[in-house]
Specification:
alpha/beta, binds ribulose-5-phosphate, globular, eight-stranded parallel β-barrel, about 300 residues
């Protein structure tokens, strides 16, 4: 039993001070419930309202992608620089240390490989398992304009409903089919559809011109998808343009883990995303870190 002897009786109610009610730092998220916001705050840094999300979910349709053959060797050392990790439950459970305390965005759709029609995806995770793994968000691919458009939109709305029941946000990933053009009109359409139908975060590609119209018309945070491997300077430039045109960070995979120096690259991306460091300076930072890391390995 608790010791009740000599309890302090003096109280301080701060009667002259109204109760504090703080807003929430993230676009379009201020009216969400506490659990949702807490999970979002594990993905996006409150100081910058942006995130460096490391995407390593490629294996769910591509198998052992270059750079991801041994996640324990190549990705685990990068985790300390990632605000959030986007991965499948298979990799999370088998390979990611459970001490990883930042956001986990779990790939929650699947069912197609590169050998078949890519848009034929379904929900591939039970909400119970997402809860069991304490994920910060679930990610689902949405193929606007593709053969299985309606099915993939329905996958997303189902996950949104399940997630709302338990306080888990959903990230809609706008997948661009072979026949689509990655322009502001298409990406704006796809992103807005995801947000209108309940996505709490939207992942979409950078485009020129007009990316700022894509972010402006999307009422929830957009994270920029990395896409195919580019030279490091170009990738840093694209990230800089995206965040200065309204993206709430990046969700990059190949441009980090297929870089000549992944550890230096993820740190340089972090400078761009959180400090809005201009690309030239961030690239110099990448080169310096790269040579330091090479020296340390010798
Ligand atoms: C597909 C995805 C990916 O599986 C992955 O996250 C892509 O990352 P990147 O293009 O940066 O390598 O979301 O749409």
């Amino acid at each position: 039993m608790a010791d009740t002897e000599e309890l302090k009786e003096t109280k301080e109610y701060f009667l002259a001070t109204p109760a504090r009610h703080e807003g929430f730092f993230l676009k379009g998220s201020h009216q969400l419930d506490w659990g949702m916001r807490n999970r979002l705050a594990r993905i996006f840094r409150p100081e910058s309202a942006r995130t460096v999300m490391l995407a390593i979910d490629h294996g769910y349709f591509l198998g052992p992608t270059t750079g991801l053959e041994r996640v324990d060797m190549t990705i685990v050392p990068l985790l300390k620089y990632a605000d959030a990790l986007m991965c499948t439950r298979g990799i999370l459970r088998s390979t990611i240390p459970s001490s990883f305390a930042n956001g986990v965005v779990m790939r929650s759709s699947g069912g197609a490989s590169t050998l078949r029609e890519m848009s034929n995806e379904r929900i591939a995770v039970d909400i119970d398992d997402a809860l069991r793994m304490n994920v910060s968000a679930m990610a689902v691919q949405v193929f606007i304009g593709a053969e299985f458009e309606t099915q993939t939109v329905h996958n997303m709305t189902q996950l949104v409903d399940l997630g709302l029941r338990y306080g888990i946000p959903t990230m809609g990933v706008t997948a661009v089919g072979k026949d689509m053009v990655r322009d502001a009109r298409y990406l704006g359409l796809a992103s807005r559809i995801c947000a209108e139908l309940g996505a709490h975060i939207v992942k979409t590609y950078y485009c020129e011109p007009g990316f700022e119209t894509v972010t402006a018309a999307c009422p929830v945070p957009i994270v920029m998808a990395g896409g195919k491997k580019l030279p490091e300077f170009e990738a840093l430039t694209m990230a800089y343009k995206a965040v200065t045109q309204g993206a709430s960070g990046v969700d990059m995979g190949r441009n980090i883990f297929q870089s000549a120096a992944p550890e230096a690259m993820i740190q340089a991306v972090g400078k761009v995303v959180h400090e809005l460091m201009p690309p030239k300076q961030a690239y110099d930072c990448y080169l310096t870190l790269k040579s330091e890391q090479e020296k340390a390995r010798r």
